[in-house]
Design a protein that fits this description.
This protein has 234 residues and is of the alpha+beta class. It has six helices and ten strands; from the N terminus they run αββββααββαβββαβα. It has one domain. A six-stranded antiparallel sheet has the order 6-2-3-4-5-9. Strands 1-10 form a two-stranded antiparallel sheet. Strands 7-8 form a two-stranded antiparallel sheet. A hairpin with a 4-residue loop joins strand 2 and strand 3.
Length: 234
């Protein structure tokens, strides 16, 4: 009888912990910061156009491939993709768990070991970069266009740069699949990244922290994509 009570108590504690985790996560994600942020206006400032996109679960930050502040093609060559994307005007950055990204192209491929490692800070991180053309980035509920000052753009760039692992020669480390860069399709490649995914730091937490670093509207803390996108609803 005591064993049964102990088992029930154990699972009760787990259930309560999960419920509290979800309540706290949702609650904090709805606390906004940098609420005074406004879109930069080119008639008064030097502005940079960026995008915030989501696939319904995971967020990416999309930046110009090159401008006077940063030429990303020097570190992330479009020619590394399966199709030469040298004409692409934008590149997206999405941080996440390496095992989840590389071993789980679809939800049906998800393994219990991959999920466990990701949730409990046991894996490593990767940066998924994808090239886009302007026509691919049409504003809708899953794609938000944001205009920011050059000063804030520099801060955003610095945050993203600091998320990559670099070699002794200060190069980003491509993740290879055999003799070719690992990718999902024709327009993307993966790089080694700093940090680790966990119950308290997800791909969306990374995106949110990038926005905070650039003084943009963001959540106090979040694990989810929707609270971030909601900050940019018109």
């Amino acid at each position: 009888m005591k064993k049964i009570k102990t088992i029930f108590r154990f699972f009760g504690i787990i259930l309560i912990s999960i419920v509290l985790y979800i309540i706290i996560a949702f609650g904090i994600s709805h606390i906004p910061i940098n609420t005074d942020f406004e879109n930069c206006k080119n008639d008064t400032q030097d502005c940079v156009e960026v995008f915030l996109i989501t696939n319904g679960v995971h967020t990416d930050i999309v930046l110009p491939t090159k401008n006077t502040t940063k030429n990303w093609t020097k570190s992330i060559s479009p020619t590394a993709t399966k199709t030469d994307n040298s004409s692409s005007k934008f590149v997206a950055f999405g941080w996440g768990d390496k095992g989840f990204f590389l071993e789980t192209p679809t939800w049906s491929d998800l393994k219990a070991s991959t999920a466990f490692n990701a949730l409990f800070y046991l894996g490593s991180a990767t940066m998924h970069t994808t090239f886009y053309n302007k026509e691919d980035l049409q504003e809708n509920p899953t794609c938000k266009k944001i205009s920011i000052s050059k000063e804030n753009y520099q801060k955003l760039v610095k945050f993203i740069e600091n998320s990559f692992k670099i070699t002794e020669n200060n190069n980003y480390q491509l993740i290879m699949q055999g003799e070719k860069p690992h990718s999902y399709g024709n327009d993307d490649v993966f790089f080694e990244a700093k940090g680790a995914y966990s119950l308290f730091y997800t791909c969306n937490t990374w995106t949110n922290n990038a926005l905070k670093a650039a003084n943009m509207k963001a959540c106090l803390w979040t694990l989810f994509d929707k609270p971030i996108l909601a900050k940019y609803e018109k």
